Amino acid sequence: MTDRISDIVTGLPQLRSVNDLWHLAERRLAAGDAAFLGDLGVALTERYGSETRDVWQYGSVMDQLLRLLALTPGAANVAQAARLAGGGGRARTRYTAVLLACGKAPAELAGVFSGGGVGGGGTEELRACLVHELVLRGVCLDETPAIARWAASPHWRHHPLGRLPLSLTALEATPPMPGYHLSGSSHGMPERPAGGHRIQAGAENPALDVVEVTTAEDDEAIGAAVAGWFAHSNGRHEARVYELAGPATPEDVAAVLPTLDLACLRDADPLPGLVPCAPEAVWRMLFVSASTGGAYGGGEHGAYGRLAAWRSLGGLAGCPGDDPAEIEPMALACSWFGLDPLTGWFADVAWDVTAVALGPDRRRLAVLAATDTD
Questions:
Q1: Would you say 186 and 179 are in contact if contact means Cβ atoms under 8 Å apart?
Q2: Rounded to 10 degrees, what is the CA torsion of 225, 230, 236, 240?
Q3: Does the bond joining 341 to the residue before it have cis omega, within 30 degrees of 0?
Q4: Angstrom distance (rounded) from CA 56 to CA 29
Q5: Which of 16, 279, 305, 322 could be joined to 300 by an S-S link, Cβ 3.0–4.6 Å?
Q6: For residue range 118-133, what is the model confidence (pLDDT) as tens digits?
Q7: What is the CATH number of the domain that holds 359?
Q8: How far is Cα 14 from Cα 6, in angstroms, rounded to an integer?
Q9: Under 8 Å CB-to-CB from 33, ≥6 apart: which residues?
Q10: Please, what's the b/e burial string for 349-360 (b: 16 or more CB within 10 A of its CB; e: otherwise)?
C-alpha cells in the first residue's frame, strides 16, 4: 500500500481491513523510522480525532501505532509515543503512560521528563501518570535521576495525583497490574472476599438502633472506584453510611444489615453472611475495579485507578479526601467485611464488589455494593 501519509489519511475510512497499514508501520519502525509513525499518528488525529466512533479504523490504527512505539525498544520510539499522547486527550495520555511503563526500562523513559518537543519530553499529565504507573510496578524512582527530580519537584503538588506517595505503601502491597504486548493485553478482575468463616446474626444479637447519615459527598467518595461502571457501562452501585446507637461487634453488624433497606439485600433469601477480610484485600479489589473498569468503557488505568481506590477506601473508612497518609491509619483501624454469597441484585458475571467497613469507633458503618454486566 502507499506510504504517503496524506494518501493514508484520506483513504482510511474506506479500508475494510487495517492489517496492511499495521504491517507498513511495523516495517517503517523496523527500518528505524519512528518519525513516520509519529507523523502518521498526528495526521490521523488532526483529521479523525473527533470522529473515533464513526471511523473505527482510526482507533484501531492509533492503538497499534502506540503499542509499536511504546513496546519496542529505542529512545526515538519513546519520544514519538510521547508526541502522540500529547495530542490525544486525557484517555490516550493515560493509556500511553501504561504502555510506556510496561514496555520500557526507566532509563529509557528519562527523556519524557526533560525538555519538550519531539526530541524528548512529554506533557505534564503524561509525566504525572507515568510516575505512578512506574511506582505501581515497584520501580524505585531515585534510581533514575531525571524522573526523581521531576517527581520531587513542588510545582505539581496541586495536581490530582500529587498527594499519592512515590513508593507503594504497606497497605497497597503488590498491586495486580495488567500486561500488554503488540497483539493484546491481560488484566485481572475484581476479587471479592469469599470462603472462610462467615459471620451470621444470632438470636443473642438483636439489631442495634441505626440512623442513615449518607451524604452526596459520601456517595461520590465511596463509589469512586466503580464510577466508570455506571457512567460508561451497564453497572449500578449502592454506597451508604450509618451511625449505630452503640459500639458494635461483627455479629451486631450482621444483625443490623437486614434492617437497613439496602437494595443489594432486599428480598434476599437466604441473607448473605459477613466474611472478614483484610484492608489490603479491600484496596486491591477497589484498585482493580477502578483501573480496569467494568464491562464496557475501559478503566482509569493505574495512576488514576490508584487515586480512585484510595478515595473509595477513605470514604468507607470515614476519612474524606484522597491523601493516603491520612486514610491508611484509619483504614487499618477499621474492621472490614465482604458479603457472601451474592444476592439476586448482583449480575454475578465478573464485575461484582462488596465492602462493609465498621469504623474505628465501632459506631460508623459504611457499605459499598456494585455490579456490572456486558
A1: yes
A2: 50
A3: yes
A4: 23
A5: 305
A6: 444 678 999 999 999 9
A7: 3.40.1000
A8: 14
A9: none
A10: eebbbbbbbbbb
Q: Can you give the pTM of this predicted structure? A: 0.93
Q: pLDDT > 70: what percent of the chain? A: 94
Q: How distant is the alpha carbon of residue 112 from its chain centre? A: 22
236 φ, ψ (degrees, to nearest 5): -145, 160
Contact 265, 274 (CB under 8 A): no
Q: Are residues 14 and 75 in the same domain?
A: yes
Asked if residue 355 belongs to a domain, the reply is yes
Determine the residue type at 155: H
Q: Is residue 196 part of a domain?
A: no
Residue-wise pLDDT for 293-337, tens only, equals 998 877 999 999 999 999 999 999 999 888 999 999 999 999 999
At residue 212, the 3 state secondary structure works out as strand
Count Cβ neighbours within 10 Å for each residue of 287-308 and write b for 16 or more, e otherwise: bbbbbbbbbeeebbbbbbbbbb
Q: Where is 131: in which H helix or E strand?
A: helix 124-136
* Domain-located, residue 289: yes
Same domain, 23 and 168: yes
Question: What tens digit of pLDDT does each residue of 27-85 get?
Answer: 999 999 999 999 999 999 999 987 667 889 999 999 999 999 999 998 899 999 999 99
Q: Supply the pLDDT for residue 309.
A: 97
Domain boundary pick from 164, 181, 198 = 181
